[in-house]
Specification:
six-stranded mixed β-sheet; globular; mainly beta; single chain; 50% strand; 113 residues
Length: 113
């Protein structure tokens, strides 16, 4: 079955860190560009980071640049989003995406004291 499964979300205080994981099954993740998106409550889904199949970074959205890091582990067929210095406005459902798959269920990130 071709799919992506996100995990690693949770409740964190402002200034904290989380690492999200995106495990691919049924295909080789590093054969595709991989993106992380987020969707705040009542908002649109927005692209926040992308990495090429070559491993080159495509982009970071301005509000996460310098705080978030996208990476991949080909041996684990997994992509990651390391999120540091988290802010309340980072609260959202986070999704990973490739052109090979449909949207997964996402993982909820909540930043609150």
């Amino acid at each position: 079955q071709v799919r992506l499964v996100e995990s690693g979300g949770g409740l964190v205080q402002p200034g904290g860190s989380l690492r999200l994981s995106c495990v691919a099954s049924g295909f080789t993740l590093t054969d595709y560009d991989v993106y992380w998106y987020r969707q705040r409550s009542g908002g649109l889904r927005e692209e926040i980071a992308g990495i090429r199949e070559t491993g080159r970074i495509i982009r970071y959205e301005a509000s996460v640049k310098g705080r978030f890091i996208i990476s991949e582990d080909s041996g684990k067929n997994t992509a990651y989003l390391q999120m540091n210095d988290l802010k309340p406005e980072d609260t959202a459902m986070y999704y990973c995406y490739t052109s090979r798959t449909s949207w997964g269920q996402g993982t909820q990130v909540t930043i609150s004291s």
